[in-house]
Amino acid sequence: MELQGKNVFVTGSTRGIGLAIAEAFAKEGANIILNGRGEISQELIQKIQQHHVKCIGVSGDISDFEIAGEMIASAEKDLGPINILVNNAGITNDKLLMRMSAEDFDKVLKINLTGTFNMTQHITKKMLKAREGRIINLTSVSGLIGNIGQSNYSASKAGVIGFTKSVARELAARGITCNAIAPGFIATDMTETLSDKVKEQVTQNIPLQQFGTTNDVANTAVFLAKSPYITGQVINVDGGLVMHG
Q1: Neighbours of 138 (CB within 10 A)
Q2: What is the pLDDT of residues 175-194, one digit of tens each?
Q3: Measured CA angle at 184 (ends 181, 185), to 5 deg
Q4: CA 155/CA 143 separation, integer angstroms
Q5: 153 is catalytic
Q6: What is the CB neighbour count within 10 angstroms for residue 77?
Q7: Domain 7-237 architecture
Q8: Cα separation, 206 vs 144, whole angstroms
Q9: Any idea what the Cα angle at residue 2 is, between residues 160 and 131, rounded to 5°?
Q10: Cα–Cα separations (whole angstroms), residue 133 to 25, 36, 224
Q11: Of the listed 25, 153, 163, 185, which one is catalytic?
Q12: Fewer CB within 10 Å, N side or C side of the chain?
């Protein structure tokens, strides 16, 4: 897909990986819909507009089916049909299983997995008519191999992988691809809170011996958006942390 002039909706794009993805698409000439639960600042919008593209901000909770639909309708009213959806928004609430409440579990699944369904279900209706579209879902290596204290997060991200593969099969005949990106340890505000000791231990388990960058993930998203013959895949951006035979 040629990205110049296309409209890209990136959920959870006010910081970190989501913002990096939005900027990467803007550099390719795509118009951007920024999204977050809170108000989108003009500063962020102007940052994207510096790439000489259109950019709007749409606030709302993706875990609410009706709100998800309203956000998409609002974005389409301003920019026209959405060509690319990047389901990036997600949360963590890490606790050992024995200390995790039902609410702790449900909240993470509702945003990470149900939110991905909500946005995708609404947006594909227009893509089906256009017979073209790209859906890119952010999962995690935790969804592939699990992680201590992350039964809720790992379950949600494993669910995103299954969802991605099913959607890819359903929509392929209409020229719509659906893929997932599984980041490993990426240098963000979240990983900055880790102690130096933990960072060192983690790095020793990564074959490339370093954390990834948000641009590593963003560039992968752009690659998938441009690729017409890749669908139903999970691409690990993890420095070799998870390898499949």
Answers
A1: 26
A2: 999 999 999 999 987 777 77
A3: 140
A4: 6
A5: yes
A6: 9
A7: 3-Layer(aba) Sandwich (3.40)
A8: 16
A9: 60
A10: 15, 22, 11
A11: 153
A12: C
